[in-house]
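testing teh design pipeline on a random one, pls ignore if ur not involved
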């Protein structure tokens, strides 16, 4: 197995779930090896990048043979902690929040939304099997449910106040869908998903780099 102390670059780490999902499907279909060209075609990452990524975890494909699917799967499962479920709370059960609750994250993933919070008449209901609680119980339920990650789908105006409340618990990561830029202590990592920015960026690339091969 690869040397676990090796630090994988962030760009590589971000592609791991993509590789993992594809390899799991390959494995399920009984395939034992895969070439970087096949992988490249399936996950839409160029094969030189795939070879470099895989070299970080000691998977050196052989010419004419490719990579051993079992070996790679074992590595990904370990690296992505697939055996351990990370418990997630969602705050803000509006348009976006409701859609996320109805989506079964566990299907392809190692995360589970355990609890949701709001201040509206959604409180006391269940959406996608997830109970919706009032914000008054936020700190207590985050603690009791061992929540490590929070998805924020509230109006931007309340995002920072809520973040300040989360900061005191065991939460390590926030997935922020609001346009607000959040201040957090150093033990918390924030990933900001701004759909407007992503869309603008896509349009920019389409204009300036019309084909991905150029
Ligand atoms: N809907 C989209 O397509 C979309 C896309 C990108 C980003 N966003 C952003 O995501 C966030 C949510 O968007 P939306 O369309 O779902 O909004 P929404 O108004 O439908 O939902 C917001 C939810 O937050 C709840 N809420 C309000 N104050 C709260 C508080 N103090 N504590 C807990 N819950 C509270 C509301 O009751 C409501 O259920 C916004 O910041 C929005 O800018 C939305």
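output:
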């Amino acid at each position: 197995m690869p040397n676990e102390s090796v630090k994988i670059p962030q760009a590589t780490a971000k592609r791991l779930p993509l590789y993992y999902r594809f390899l799991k499907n390959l494995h399920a279909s009984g395939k034992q090896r895969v070439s970087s060209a096949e992988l490249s075609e399936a996950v839409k990452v160029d094969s030189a990048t795939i070879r470099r990524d895989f070299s970080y975890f000691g998977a050196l494909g052989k010419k004419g043979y490719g990579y051993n699917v079992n070996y790679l799967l074992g590595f990904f499962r370990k690296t992505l902690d697939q055996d351990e479920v990370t418990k997630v709370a969602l705050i803000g059960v509006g348009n976006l929040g409701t859609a996320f609750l109805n989506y079964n994250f566990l299907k392809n993933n190692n995360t589970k939304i355990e609890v949701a919070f709001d201040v509206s008449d959604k409180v006391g209901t269940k959406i996608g099997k997830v109970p919706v609680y009032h914000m008054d119980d936020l700190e207590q339920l985050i603690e009791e449910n061992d929540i490590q990650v929070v998805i924020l789908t509230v109006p931007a105006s309340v995002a920072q106040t809520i973040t300040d409340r989360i900061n005191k618990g065991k939460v390590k990561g926030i997935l922020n869908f609001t346009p607000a830029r959040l201040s957090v202590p150093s033990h918390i990592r924030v990933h900001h998903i701004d759909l407007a920015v992503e869309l603008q960026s896509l349009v920019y690339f389409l204009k300036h780099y019309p084909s991905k091969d150029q």
